[in-house]
Amino acid sequence: MTSPPIIKIREAEEPRDLVHRCVQALAEGQIVVMPTETIYGVAASVLVPHAVERLADMKGRKQGHAFTLALKSAEEIWDYVPDLPAVAWRLARRAWPGPLTLVVESRHPLSAARRFPPQVQQLVCPEGTLGFRVPDHFFISEVLRLLPAPLVLTSVNKTGEPPARSAEEAAANLPEVDIIFDDGPAVHGIASTVVKIEDGSWTILREGVLSKTAIAEMASAVILFVCAGNTCRSPMAQALCQAMLAEKLGCSPQQLRDFGVVVRSAGLEAYGGDGASPQAIEVLKQRGINLEGHMSQQLTDSLVQDADRIFAMTRALKEAVLARWPDAADRIDCLDPHGQDIADPFGGPLQAYEQCAKLIEDALRDRCEELLRLVVVPRSGA
User: Fold this and answer.
1) Cα separation of 140 and 311, whole Å?
2) How does DSSP classify residue 76?
3) pTM to 2 decimals?
4) Residue 97: is the preceding peptide bond cis (ω within 30°)?
5) Core-most of 232, 255, 370, 376, by most CB within 10 Å?
6) Per-residue pLDDT tens over the stretch 322-341
7) Percent of the chain with pLDDT over 70
């Protein structure tokens, strides 16, 4: 059997020419090997049924063993799973592009997968679930950006055999492919981590680059409280929320991560590194909560982007956050469910801090059920 041509990406005068060559090959129904950040992948266009079937034969794919779909962005998953669970979206937006494969139930009548040719549907969704991946490698990312539909993407090996971590291994493992694009040894050399989402929880089907600890971190719901300086109101809200959720869940505040909840606070005008005000420490001490270890931090892009729910202490703070981060509009509210401001007690007497803490407690109690719905626990064996 003639070996497939191996095209070295880094030696090309214009790598974009190779991107276009790859796109054309896929459109013509060729089976193409490309580098990803994990291992080398072999791909076919979902729009060319005979190519996808040929790839399945080439791999020796068992019936019911679905192919993964490679998407150009995390946002594209909504086209295929319009009712995507919250925990799946957390993982997608925090891990992609990157070494995560998500397996999600896809039975929605408006799923774009229903427009795939029937033969392709059988190979990507044989049991009502779809697998998705957004690779983090410039070459395949550019290829996907230029394509009108996802790619079927799988490891370069016969089913059950070791995957290819280089172009040479790819040529040896599957010499039947049509063309190989070579970018040297894969960065990680380990497959992506495969996570299945079911009933609002998650299970690791295959641990790869991302560990269980990393997946648990990314799957956690992040609650963020925002005030001005992050020394009075928002740290009190953070600590009081942690105490309330821990009591409801029957755990310690330190164990909330095991229930998939992370509670944070930040200040829009915080300098960073300041402790909580003495009065805030005293007010919470009377409630059996230690605030002495708190260190203030400024509100940042990453804190806002990671947060599932953001609670501002006043309407003015909410508007100030939205002015800088308009994409947070569907995730931010005033902490008080009725939109009432919780005034800053800074510089006031202890009584002002006590009144502030009571207003925060009342607001948290009103939002308790809403916050508990964010809890996500991995399935046993995950």
Assistant:
1) 39
2) G
3) 0.85
4) yes
5) 232
6) 999 999 999 999 999 999 99
7) 98
d(CA 183, CA 367): 51
Q: For residue 61, what pLDDT is reported?
A: 77
Distance CA 125, CA 111 (A): 12
The domain defined by 6-216 carries CATH number 3.10.290.10: no
Q: Which candidate, 211, 227, 225, 200, places its Cα nearest to that of 105?
A: 200
What is the Cα–Cα distance from 248 to 134, expressed in whole angstroms?
Answer: 37
Torsions phi, psi for 377 (to 5 deg): -110, 130
Catalytic residues: 227, 233, 344
Amino acid, res. 227: C
Strand order from edge to edge, sheet including 151-155: 6-8, 179-182, 32-34, 41-45, 151-155, 68-70, 129-133, 100-105, 193-198, 201-206
Asked if residue 150 has pLDDT above 60, the reply is yes
Kindly state the tokens that stand for 190. 């380990």
Residue found by looking up tokens 């399945």 in the block? 56
Q: What is the pLDDT of residue 375?
A: 81
Tell me the domain boundaries of the chain. Answer: 6-216, 220-372
- Cα–Cα distance for residue pair 38/187, rounded to 1 Å: 6
Q: Which helix (H) or strand (E) holds 308?
A: none
Class of domain 220-372: alpha beta
pLDDT (mean) for 281-303: 97
What does the pLDDT read at residue 251? 94
Tokens at residue 278, please? 């003495």
CA 320-353-358 angle, to 5 degrees, is 85
> CA torsion, points 102, 103, 109, 115, in degrees to nearest 10?
80
Confidence band for 178, pLDDT divided at 50, 70 and 90: very high
